[in-house]
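Example (one chain per record):
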Amino acid sequence: MTEEKKKKKSSGLFLIGFITGPIIILFIFSGKTFVLLREAIGNTLPLFFTPGILEFSLFFLGFLIVSLVNYLRRREEDDEWVILESSENDLSNDKRNSS
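Predicted structure:
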């Protein structure tokens, strides 16, 4: 298995654990968890709808979405480097034109 496949596999396992872990904990402590979530959301949600924080959080969320789309798009495309060949005649003409 190549190194890249190992990294993808390990990151996939991490994400599965990261997502399923809280769900399992939620089922174990379901009665207390819902009360805690309700109180946490009730206390923090009004904070995010204040005008300055709402604008900043929407900007940050939009920036994250654009960055994620850009990252995924660039990962699928090939290398975009372009190498321009130049001859010695071009270099000597540039030196004469700049003098």
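Caption: The chain has a mean pLDDT of 77.
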